[in-house]
Amino acid sequence: MIKKAIQFWLDFLFPKNCLLCQEGNEYLCQKCFRNLKFKDPHCPNCDNNSKIGIFCDKCRDKFELKGVLVAGDFNDKNLATLIKYYKYNFIKELGNYLGLFLVNFLNNNIRTNPIMKNNNSELNLDLDNYLIIPVPLSKKRLRWRGFNQSQILAKKIGGEIGLKISLDLVRVKHRTAQAKLNKKGREENLKNCFKWKGENLKEQKIIIVDDVYTTGSTLNEVAQELKKHQAGEIWGLVLAKG
Ligand SMILES: [Zn+2]
Ligand SMILES: [Zn+2]
């Protein structure tokens, strides 16, 4: 109640407007939202061309995931700005817009991709068969930010496309923030820090949702844990590659 009253006065004193063009009365106006561009698919590891975002032959063996669906481009300054405001300025409402960006990407670039119409294709990624799992945060990080940015994105996708979500993946350790480490350090920092608390996954196909792809070590570590519990094919889904 008090929180609501404070928010009311904050909105009154500092009216909201588009973070990109400073117009309108929302954090992101329709025009700027429509201007966010989808990225052409590449191998997430080496940036070679690849269909949808599957790992190329050269990189395949290094990852437990089949591929990563990268919706946008970090070189798109507007998208990069929004992600920064979302994660580091704690503007939780941006999760709805960025979640919708992912929904549009899945509907426009994945569902209607001609590859999907070929049932024999190894890339027949029929979204309805997939379970959505957001990358969890440690308790410490959750307290710091006040929300799990990946969970909000996942919930938006689940709600809009009607896919099942599971929150049974937890993070058990918090060490150094990943952003401060190099590739080797990131892998060490992540070892065994995810735990699946749900039932046996019995070949369930999964899409792991995260905000940004950097080296892929977070998604890969999550995939390893899920595979220990008999997960089927696993994909990642992110807003952009950093
Ligand atoms: Zn705008
Ligand atoms: Zn590659």
Describe the overall structure.
The strands form 2 sheets. Strands 1, 2, 3, 6, 7 and 8 form a 6-stranded parallel β-sheet that branches. A two-stranded antiparallel ribbon has the order 4-5. The chain has 9 helices and 8 strands. The chain is globular. It folds into 2 domains: 1-35, no CATH class; 38-241, Rossmann fold (3-Layer(aba) Sandwich). Helix content is 38%, strand content 14%. With 242 residues, it is of the alpha/beta class. The longest helix is centred in the middle third of the chain and has 18 residues, at 94-111. The site of one zinc ion has 8 residues, from loops.
Instruction: Report strand %.
Output: 5-15%
Provide the gyration radius in Å.
18 Å
Total domains? 2
Q: What distance separates the N and C termini?
A: 39 Å
Tell me roughly what share of residues is in helical segments.
Answer: 25-40%
Taking all residues together, what is the mean pLDDT? 90
Large-scale geometry: globular
Name of the CATH class of the largest domain: Alpha Beta
Bound molecules: zinc ion
The computed structural class is alpha/beta
Tell me about the biggest sheet? 6 strands, parallel
Please count the beta strands (DSSP E, at least 2 residues each).
8
What are the low-pLDDT stretches, counting only 5+ consecutive residues below 50?
none
Per DSSP, the total helix count is: 9
Q: Under the CATH scheme, which architecture of the largest domain would be assigned?
A: 3-Layer(aba) Sandwich
Which fold name fills CATH's third level, the topology of the largest domain? Rossmann fold
Secondary-structure element pattern, one letter each? HHEHHHEHHEEHEEEHE
